[in-house]
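From: lab user (bench 3)
To: helpdesk
Subject: output format question, protein + heme C

Hello, I'm new to running complex predictions and I'm not sure whether the block I got back is the full result or only part of it. Here's what I submitted:
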Amino acid sequence: MMKPLLVLSSLLILAACGGGSQPQQSQPAPATPVQTEENAAPANPVLSDLGTQGKSLYESNCAACHYLDKKLIGPALQGANSRYEEAWLIKFIKNSQAMIKAGDPLAKQVYEDNNRMVMNSNEHLSDDEIKSILVYIKEAGN
Ligand code: HEC
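Helpdesk reply: Thanks, we reran it on our side. This is the complete output you should expect:
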């Protein structure tokens, strides 16, 4: 019955000093976990390679009009991946005005909801490039 307890308390001691290499004198494990810089939440989201590629495309093509978390000229993009289908997003981002003129009900709705503000077209971006921007939005804001 003693062994699991011993293992547990040495784990606690290890965790409390961040797995540091200094040998520990026999101290009782602290009652509350110690908040160290290592276990604090990261300030920046961890991005995949695709998300990193998307971030730079986002910064050069989208950031002038969009924040992730609040409205700028266009709406906040956080959550766009769950609000719309990927295929719809790719088409809209490439040329929203063409979709609006063709009568796509969702595109017309977005346009009306944003005081008929025109989003520029992005025909120069490939589907894969737009997908990487969507990955970035997902990883940075969801
Ligand atoms: C010139 C400003 C401008 C730029 C640049 C721009 N957008 Fe927009 N965006 C808008 C506006 C305005 C709207 C809403 C009105 C509309 O439909 O045109 C919008 C709407 C959207 C929507 C729909 C959001 C929702 O929740 O309804 C998405 C998604 C979007 N933009 C993505 C992008 C992406 C990705 C880029 C970069 C490739 C981009 N936009 C670049 C102005 C811009």
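A quick orientation on your result: Residues 61-62, 64-66, 73-75, 77, 80, 83, 89, 93, 96, 110-111, 114, 117-120, 122, 133 surround heme C (CB under 6 Å). Let us know if anything else is unclear.
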